Amino acid sequence: MITIQPLYTAVATSTGGRAGHTRSETGKVDLPLSVPKEMGGDSGPGTNPEELFAAGYSACFEGALRLVARTQKIQVKDASITARVSFGKDEGGGFGLAVELHGRLPELSREQAEKLMADAHQVCPYSRATRGNIDVKLIVD
Predict the structure, then answer these.
(1) pTM for the whole thing?
(2) Residue 34 · residue 48 · CB < 8 Å
(3) Does residue 16 come out as left (phi exceeding 0), alpha (psi in the -120 to 50 range) or beta?
(4) CA distance 85 to 19
(5) Are 140 and 117 in contact, with CB atoms under 8 Å apart?
(6) Are 78 and 113 in contact (CB under 8 A)?
(7) Which of 8, 21, 27, 131 is the least crowded, having the fewest Cβ atoms under 10 Å away?
(8) How far is CA 61 from the centre of its chain?
(9) Which domains does the chain have, with CATH numbers?
(10) Residue 24 and residue 104: Cα distance in Å, rounded?
(11) What number of helices (H) and strands (E) belong to the chain?
């Protein structure tokens, strides 16, 4: 296990599970939660944990990608990362997640973009945290 010296700690509290409410300690995140129809819910007005994870992972991964690009002196002005987080049943009869990270890097060749995404995948804290636990696919669009 890797230990860290925290630079920042985010704090959020959720009540009511997937059909409840979540709020960060700062109040910047203050959202109702709803269960998607595909998961047996009513797809109400709220978000869900998978959307929140996709938002966090895509932002973190793009930050790692830009860091790696800077260190390699590669321009990625118009880069974007889209995270697709899937929730489903696993082989053991439980539930799990799978992630696709789609990179849009129009200034780069496919080969350059694939290498940059692979390098960012080694640096991104979300990628490091999920490695070996979640199937993560890197895709250049």
Answers:
(1) 0.94
(2) yes
(3) left
(4) 19
(5) yes
(6) no
(7) 8
(8) 7
(9) 1-47 (2.20.25.10), 49-140 (3.30.300.20)
(10) 30
(11) 3, 6
Do the bridges between strand 135-140 and strand 12-15 make them parallel or antiparallel, or are there none, so unpaired?
Answer: unpaired
Tell me the one-letter amino acid at 42.
D
DSSP string, 17-31: GGGSEEEETTSS-EE
Interatomic CA distance for residues 16 and 97, integer angstroms: 21
Q: What is the Cα–Cα distance from 127 to 57, expressed in whole angstroms?
A: 8
pLDDT tens for 8-50 read: 999 999 999 999 999 999 999 999 999 999 999 999 999 999 9
At which residue do the structure tokens 């696919």 appear? 137
| DSSP state letter for 38 | G
What whole-number distance in Å separates Cα of residue 119 and Cα of residue 36?
Answer: 34
In this structure, are residues 41 and 34 in contact, taking their beta carbons and an 8 Å threshold?
yes
pLDDT tens-digit profile of 91-130? 899 999 999 999 999 999 999 999 999 999 999 999 999 9
**Gap between the Cα atoms of 57 and 40, Å rounded:** 25
d(CA 18, CA 80) in angstroms, rounded, equals 29
